[in-house]
Design goal:
Number of helices: 10
Structural class: alpha/beta
CATH class of the domain at 1-77 and 153-159 and 183-231: Alpha Beta
Distance between the termini: 32 Å
Order of helices and strands: EEEHEEHEHHHHEHEHEEHH
Helix content: 25-40%
CATH architecture of the domain at 1-77 and 153-159 and 183-231: 3-Layer(aba) Sandwich
Number of strands: 10
């Protein structure tokens, strides 16, 4: 579904990514782990063309989309739930969802399916984006991504700053998406919750991939958590 190959990138003269490589298969859930400032969000921005790569390749469904503009990345089947949610504050919740809607066949995501997934959004559909709580905004950001009918959803800091009950609702949503065959690439700090969802984990440190493996591999290597994930 997604291949990131030897990805390099920088902000001006400050190099951030050094040959980052990993894959996400169709229907697979993969995590991108690491402490703050290690290059996770820069990797996501590079994938979506928000920060054009300085080197390497981004391949989606066999198509080389390295450096393609964001709208082409989205049309290739990738949806993003960005860090900080970035919903439209002066549109209603429903308008936020409609703004990104794109057809996807018989099983397409629609307003009714989003409201079935997140009943709270239906209750708040006429409220402006800036009138929603943090948890409601995160639900809206996920719903907005799904309205593009993606084959892969990328979530940058999936549950950051959310109350425990809302976090569990988000994890349940992601588990359902995976069960429906949607591929997932997720960044989050809750390793235990990620382990219940993910097939594989990728750890990044100072812009380089330093480890990757399955849940069993991660459980068998506690030194990885201690060295690369603990603050």
């Amino acid at each position: 579904m997604l291949t990131v190959e030897a990805l390099d990138n920088a902000y001006g003269a400050s190099r951030i990514l050094f040959g980052v490589s990993f894959e996400v298969g169709a229907g697979e859930a993969v995590t991108l782990l690491g402490r703050n400032g290690m290059g996770k969000t820069t990797t996501i921005k590079s994938i979506f063309g928000l920060l054009p790569p300085r080197g390497g390749r981004i391949v989606v469904n066999g198509r080389d989309l390295t450096g393609a503009p964001p709208h082409r990345i989205a049309r290739a089947g990738l949806g993003i739930v960005p860090e900080g949610r970035q919903i439209f504050p002066n549109l209603t919740a429903e308008e936020n969802l409609i703004a990104t809607a794109r057809g996807g066949g018989r099983a397409a995501w629609s307003l009714s399916r989003i409201y079935e997934l997140f009943p709270r959004l239906k209750e708040r559909r006429r409220n402006m984006g800036n009138q929603l709580s943090g948890g409601e905004q995160q639900m809206l950001a996920i719903g907005r991504a799904l309205m593009t009918n993606p084959r892969l959803v990328v979530l940058d800091e999936a549950t950051e700053g959310l109350a425990p009950m809302i976090r569990e609702e988000i994890w349940a949503c992601l588990a359902r998406l995976k069960a429906e065959g949607v591929a997932i690439l997720v960044i989050d700090k809750n390793v235990d919750a990620l382990a219940r969802l993910a097939d594989r984990h990728v750890v990044i440190e100072k812009g380089e991939i330093v480890w990757s493996g399955s849940n069993d591999d991660l459980r068998a290597a506690p030194q990885i958590k201690e060295r690369y994930l603990q603050v």
